[in-house]
Amino acid sequence: MLLETIFSFMFLYVLSYSQKNDIIITGPGLNPIEIVMPARYFFINFTHINSQSYTPKLNKELVVEINGRSSDGKHCRVWVNKLDRKDGTFIVRYKIYETCSDLSIHVYYGKKEVAKSPYKFKGTIYADQCNCPEHQFQKWFKNYGCKDTYGQIKKDLKPFHNINMKEELQSIIKKYHQPESTSFCHYAIKQNKLYRNCYGKHVGFNMFSDNILLSLMRKVKLPDMDLVINLGDWPLVHRKDKPLPIFSWCGSDETYDIVMPTYDLTESALENMGRVTLDTLSVQSGAEIVWKEREPRAVWRGRDSRAERLKLIDIARANPDLFNASLTNFFFFRDKEAQYGPKQPHISFFKFFDFKYQINVDGTVAAYRMPYLLSGGGMILKQQSPYYEHFYSQLVPWEHFVPVRRDLSDLVDRVKWARDNDDKAQQIAVNARNFANNNLLPQNVICYHAALFWEWSKIIKSEVNIEENMAHVPQPSVTCNCKPEKPNTHEDL
């Protein structure tokens, strides 16, 4: 009897040990003191589970609790959100609404704590709205988990040396101040305060550039600098002209514009668990159907912003067994609505992943949906294009997406290839999501902006002066208990 009891105890111990070590928990949300974000996040990976053996029971048995103390000694307000990727992995997001201390993260499976749970943090945990910047940029950059180098940043900044922004700004205003067609803002950062003056008729999109600059400045003291940000989609500085320094959300093979993450991707990073419902985290749990059960057709919805989109409708109508494609609005080709309509209602972006293949065709410039398509777990058919976002140079054809000619002449053949090579198509989809998780999540978006502005500040030789026509852009009015500032040490720029 004693021997049976010992064997029974040993079996339970081995089972418990195996369970704890069969689950891997990683991600920036496990470093909440150093990595401040609107919504922190981490990943839970049941290593013995895959999409073929996944069951909904896994989701029910997995419980995450996050607790901490507020400044008055009560429980600090924390909102926890669990995202099931339906392949044996989960994303946990949590939003902190006030300064917290003694934060603890408990991860339970089957009512038992797993991996290294509980995770306990004794330091101060700031909410994202707290204006408590680290004064040493390089220290913050390293502790935030940012990459050392970005090839696109080096390429974009290569034409610029020893910039006198007073002179460059006058050249930019003279050439591009055309109120009806272009809009841009001149920003100045001085002693970690933000000022701007905007030019043009349509300047409402300055909210996006305001928000990322203010967000960064709450986290780290940025060096003094001037910069000009284009508020339109089209890159401005043609390569036949002098390379004037303008930051844009989209680049092209024919322009010198310095490319930032798009306003759409940036907003989704900064409004995570806020006013946006589509972001590179949430889209990973939005697909309700696993790969093997999805329709083997290519899906697309969008407006008529390019002639190739009309051609896509022709192709889809000729091959209904291969495509599900419709126009949702007519603006550029209203005279052809009778031919290519009627326009169809929008569908949830998550419903795109009821299909195995998603089509990405340019709009007026690059289609800004690419980060979400990469994250969603489908195989992307991407049109060749002179336009690009900040990360396109890192993508590899046939590894992260399937290339399609500019005129879509091989689109049908590409879909047929995917049908005939299902394992390869699925692997491309997996590679795409892995790329998104390594390069396009909120931490990556914040890091890219920080690296870009840091490197830009090294190029400017002129002193930053706040002109009379510049408005101060204030930080949100939030009371936070910031840690005492340490003496600032010199950093080489």
Explain what the structure shows.
- By secondary structure, the chain is of the alpha/beta class.
- The protein folds into three domains: 20-128, Immunoglobulins (Immunoglobulin-like); 151-269 and 443-473, no CATH class; 283-440, 3-Layer(aba) Sandwich (Rossmann fold), CATH 3.40.50.
- 30% of the residues lie in helices and 22% in strands.
- The chain has a five-stranded parallel β-sheet, with helices on both faces.
- A hairpin with a 4-residue loop joins strand 4 (78-84) and strand 5.
- Helix 7 (263-270) packs across helix 14 (442-459) and helix 11 (370-376) crosses helix 13.
- It starts with a helix and ends in a 20-residue tail after the last strand.
- The model is unreliable at 1-18 and 487-493 (pLDDT under 50).
- InterPro entries: CAP10, Filamin/ABP280_repeat-like, Ig-like_fold, Ig_E-set, O-Glucosyltr/Glycosyltrsf_90.
- Pathway: Protein modification.
- It catalyses: L-seryl-[EGF-like domain protein] + UDP-alpha-D-xylose = 3-O-(beta-D-xylosyl)-L-seryl-[EGF-like domain protein] + UDP + H(+); L-seryl-[EGF-like domain protein] + UDP-alpha-D-glucose = 3-O-(beta-D-glucosyl)-L-seryl-[EGF-like domain protein] + UDP + H(+).
